[in-house]
């Protein structure tokens, strides 16, 4: 898994003629920075990263909060058709994006919202099925005693959610926040379908701009941008690592 | 999964076309959208062309660019299904028949015949044919990229082999013999041994190249008869098998070790390469350190068993949405843009413009004679709406199997694929 990562970094600092040498020359000599300048000539890297961050941030907030709220409902309340509703919810996971892509595009297009970030952000505010599933399992592991004590003390369900469930669920929330961020950062198809204006492009659409129409790829600049694009992801992963591991462990999901 | 997605996309597209078939919304519009797969630097160049056209139009019409840097056909199908078909867009040759049959694009035959700015006689016949379906024309090809043989003159000199003629003929047997002589074991500067091959084949060139070399074809010109199991086609597959058995090409799995097939030629690990005239080896070699540079020679594709040199040609055409069929301005716009494209990429698909190739890319000047011959011989397969399915079978059940096992029974498999193709065509409505 680390080899492609090293290859990417190494290629970002290599001139073209060193990229496909056999055996692989892992350490570029001399270190070649022109791939970075070339990359910035092809696409406005920083602008595209900024656009992606805007989408990711706006999306994560809604996705994490709404998913947690719905998961809390499924984990803690007994109501009619609860299991049926949950199965229906899970069933939507079986539909691949390609199948729902055209009908949803038609809908957004009818609303006059294609070529904007709205179709990429707004659906997150209805929650994510996989996150709801994950959080429901996580919340189900919490002992009910404290909640019952809070009810006796006069707390309502929303207060329990905000004051107990959310703080206790921090590792899981950080985990799904990370997944949501990575999903947005690496999403190509959704962004490709909805965004037309190059000024609104995201980093993935920018990365797709390094191949020409005969299929030739500018490997050096492409790897340079991939390297830059990876920096925020690595930082966020390092920052959230503690919560991430804990969240996975407590929900009992194995990689 | 891809197949299901494809079926869903086609169903949605057909439904949308059915619902919008009678609409005349496009008949009066003067602002047009042009969808392109150009991205990055090419998009900047494309935008300059469109700006030029818009300026010349002087307010008569305006073109807006819709760039699709990846998954072009997924986005295009989605837009068609959502009744947002771009007014003009590019289609590669394989898809003209499919989109024409779906009713997504306009038949421009009459407009092309009545125009004096760009006539069908100007086009290389093999190139224009790739934009036709059932005898009607659906697009204006704006680029031609036929195959030629690039060879490394330094490696030929080293082996004492005379160069193939840049404008003469050579047979596939001669080609294979030369490739055998160029296949040898060498050592790099550190004493590590490596094998230099005479040629490289890994699914490219496409299977048509070999089938045509035998005098055969996959589908007849009438778009109905399947010729894949004819003796000529089998003879062509035998040429491919012979190349692989002769060990003049790295194995299929080995090719990817250098990234892609063209790198074998660039790294002087393969002495000959069949590539499109657009393959920019000249620039790449000129940018290499002096010690790694080599001289490039050019030769036409070898002559097949039918005594013809067939040069597979990749062409993209500008097509017009069906919505614009009644728009009096649309063809003029399409023609104007296409004429501008001729000065952009090599090679212009029209005759008498060979010098344009050297103007666009001066490093290609030594190749002009060969390029001219290949353009004259340029052709594509006879594409039909079922091409995608047939081509998938050709790759998965035939070509990839031969590449992995040169002793593979290609004759029986070709017959089986031909049977399937006939059944598929029989279902055509």
Largest sheet of chain A at a glance? Answer: none
Low-confidence stretches of chain B: 17-23
End-to-end Cα distance of chain A: 14 Å
What is the assembly state of the chains in this entry?
Answer: heterodimer
Count of DSSP E strands of chain A?
0
Quick one: biggest sheet of chain B? 8 strands, mixed
Number of helices of chain B: 18
Description:
The complex is a heterodimer of chains A (255) and B (429). Chain A is mainly alpha-helical and 255 residues long. Chain A has a single domain (33-251), classed as MetI-like fold (Orthogonal Bundle). Helices cover 69% and strands 0% of the residues of chain A. Chain A contains 14 helices and no strands. In chain A, helix 4 packs across helix 8, helix 4 (45-76) crosses helix 11 and helix 11 (170-186) packs antiparallel against helix 14 (219-251). The longest helix of chain A is centred in the C-terminal third of the chain and has 33 residues, at 219-251. Chain A is elongated, with a radius of gyration of 22 Å. The model of chain A has no long low-confidence stretch (mean pLDDT 89). By secondary structure, chain B is an alpha/beta fold. Chain B has two domains: 2-144 and 314-379, D-Maltodextrin-Binding Protein, domain 2 (3-Layer(aba) Sandwich); 146-312 and 385-426, Periplasmic binding protein-like II (D-Maltodextrin-Binding Protein, domain 2, 3-Layer(aba) Sandwich), CATH 3.40.190.10. Chain B is 44% helix and 15% strand. Chain B is built from 18 helices and twelve strands. Chain B has helices spanning 2-20, 40-57, 72-81, 93-102, 109-114, 125-129, 153-159, 172-182, 207-213, 231-245, 252-255, 261-266, 281-286, 330-341, 354-360, 368-376, 387-404, 410-426, and strands at residues 31-36, 62-67, 88-92, 132-133, 136-137, 140-152, 184-187, 193-196, 272-276, 296-299, 311-320, 378-379. In chain B, a hairpin with a 2-residue loop joins strand 4 and strand 5. In chain B, helix 1 runs parallel beside helix 3. Mean pLDDT of chain B is 92; it is low at 17-23.
């Amino acid at each position: 898994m680390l080899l492609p990562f090293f290859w990417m970094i190494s290629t970002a600092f290599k001139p073209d003629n060193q990229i496909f040498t056999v055996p692989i020359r892992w350490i570029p000599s001399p270190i070649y920075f022109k791939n970075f300048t070339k990359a910035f000539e092809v696409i406005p890297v920083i602008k595209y990263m900024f656009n992606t961050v805007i989408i990711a941030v706006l999306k994560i907030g809604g996705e994490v909060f709404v998913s947690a709220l719905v998961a809390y409902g499924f984990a803690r309340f007994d109501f009619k058709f609860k299991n049926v509703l949950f199965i229906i919810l899970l069933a939507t996971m079986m539909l691949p994006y390609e199948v729902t892509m055209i009908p949803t595009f038609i809908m957004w297009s009818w609303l006059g919202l294609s070529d904007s970030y709205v179709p990429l952000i707004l659906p997150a505010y209805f929650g994510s099925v996989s996150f709801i599933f994950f959080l429901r399992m996580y919340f189900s592991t919490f002992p009910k005693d404290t909640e019952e004590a809070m009810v006796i003390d006069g707390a309502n369900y929303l207060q329990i959610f905000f004051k107990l469930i959310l703080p206790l669920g921090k590792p899981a929330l950080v985990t799904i926040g990370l997944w949501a961020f990575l999903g947005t950062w690496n999403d190509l198809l959704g962004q490709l379908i909805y965004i037309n204006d190059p000024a609104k492009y995201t980093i993935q659409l920018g990365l797709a701009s390094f191949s020409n129409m005969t299929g030739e790829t500018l490997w050096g600049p492409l790897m340079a941008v991939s390297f830059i694009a990876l920096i925020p992801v690595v930082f966020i992963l390092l920052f959230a690592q503690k919560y991430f591991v804990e969240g996975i462990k407590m929900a009992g999901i194995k990689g | 999964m891809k197949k299901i997605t494809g079926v869903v996309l086609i169903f949605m597209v057909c439904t949308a076309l059915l619902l919008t078939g009678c609409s005349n919304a496009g008949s009066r519009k003067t602002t047009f959208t042009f969808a392109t797969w150009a991205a990055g630097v090419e998009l900047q160049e494309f935008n300059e062309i469109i700006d030029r056209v818009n300026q010349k139009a002087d307010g008569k019409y305006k073109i807006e660019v819709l760039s699709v840097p990846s998954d072009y056909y997924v986005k295009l199908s989605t837009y068609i299904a959502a009744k947002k078909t771009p007014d003009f867009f590019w289609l590669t040759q394989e898809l003209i028949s499919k989109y024409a049959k779906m009713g997504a694009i306009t038949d421009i035959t009459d407009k092309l015949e009545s125009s004096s700015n760009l006539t069908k006689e100007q086009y290389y016949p093999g190139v224009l044919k790739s934009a036709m379906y059932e005898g009607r024309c659906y697009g204006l090809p704006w680029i031609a990229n036929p195959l030629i043989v690039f060879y490394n003159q330094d490696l030929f000199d080293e082996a004492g082999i005379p160069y193939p003629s840049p404008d003469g003929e050579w047979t596939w047997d001669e080609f294979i013999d030369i490739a055998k002589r160029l296949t040898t074991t060498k050592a790099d500067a550190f004493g590590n041994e490596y094998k230099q091959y005479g040629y490289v084949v890994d699914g490219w060139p496409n299977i048509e190249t070999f089938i045509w070399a035998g005098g055969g074809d996959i589908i007849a010109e009438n778009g109905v008869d399947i010729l894949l199991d004819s003796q000529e086609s089998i003879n062509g597959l035998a040429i491919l098998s012979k190349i692989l058995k002769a060990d003049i090409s790295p194995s299929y799995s080995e090719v990817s070790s250098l990234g892609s097939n063209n790198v074998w030629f660039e790294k002087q690990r393969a002495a000959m390469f069949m590539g499109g005239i657009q393959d920019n080896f000249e620039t790449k070699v000129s940018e290499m350190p002096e010690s790694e540079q080599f001289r490039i020679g050019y030769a036409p594709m070898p002559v097949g068993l039918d005594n013809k040199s067939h040069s597979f040609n990749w062409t993209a055409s500008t097509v017009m949405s069906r919505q614009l069929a009644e728009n009096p301005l649309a063809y003029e716009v399409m023609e104007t843009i296409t004429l501008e494209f001729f000065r952009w990429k090599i090679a212009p698909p029209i005759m008498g413009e060979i010098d344009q190739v050297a103007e666009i890319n001066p490093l290609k000047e030594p190749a002009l004679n060969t390029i001219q011959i290949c353009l004259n011989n340029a052709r594509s397969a006879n594409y039909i709406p079922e091409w995608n399915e047939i081509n998938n079978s050709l790759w998965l059940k035939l070509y990839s199997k031969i590449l992995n096992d040169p002793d593979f029974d290609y004759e029986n498999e070709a017959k089986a694929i031909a049977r399937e193709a006939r059944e598929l065509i029989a279902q055509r409505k």
